What we know:
By secondary structure, this protein is of the alpha/beta class. The chain has a single domain (6-294), classed as Arginase, Chain A. It has nine helices and ten strands. It is globular and about 60 Å long. The termini are far apart. The mean pLDDT is 92.
Amino acid sequence: MPKDGPDASYPLIPHNFLALPHDQSALESSRVAIIPVPYDSTTSFRSGSRDGPEAMITASYGLEDYDFELELDVSEIGIHTTGAIEPHMAGPGPMTERIKSVVGDYLTMGKTIGLLGGEHSITIGSVQAHVETYPDLSVLYLDAHADLRNEYMGTPYGHASAARRAYECCPIALAGIRSMCQEEHDFIRENNIPVWYWDPNSLNSSWESILDILSGSVYVSVDLDVLDPALMPAVGTPEPGGLAWHQLVSLLGKVAESRRIVGFDVCELAPADGPPACSYTAAKLVYKLVAYACGNKNQPS
């Protein structure tokens, strides 16, 4: 029998992000920890984002390891995929604490954390953990919706309150917004929260002003509905309009050039609500964020 067991002698696909072999995915040697969070208990329109993490991991098998933009083999960064965080059935508050605890443990190991959602409420616990490790943290929150309600449907820890809870931890900048309620509109005005509303003619010219708001350490949170639903229909709450792929990637690249991306999440993929290309696009975005966080030659240390 082979030293590492019978599997070592057969061409089996590793079940992790990018389907990486052990030497590129072992926890001790990896710079990045990808944490799946299959959770969507506060979803208010279409459920199904609990299936997003698995769909992204499976779709990632088809990605090329080499990123020609950065001239980088992303697999060489070392990417460890953890087991999925089990949903806490006591509710979104305890689930937030569970996510904070898990993320905090990996941060103490010196890992760059990427969460695969799941609904956008998973951001709350992750930001809370990151602030404890990076006191100068700011959050770039990319979403079609403001998510600034103090509470929604009986909980302050749901997907509609994720940006509000993040704002209570550290500075936050919202971009790609094209839907909000009156409460959120008033809260933005009263607290001078920097918001860049989606505009097909002017958003690209706003990149520099967005960067001016961000601190040296940035957490990037992406709700996939920030993208145009023509590109990304597989989300819980699709909203007309939205960013094109190259607009989103261009912004993230500019952030990485002058700031340090210390953590990220990609949320709200509901794979059953769109074609398989949506899962592939989501996986590609995770891949790009890993590269920008840990492989950008121009990124500040």
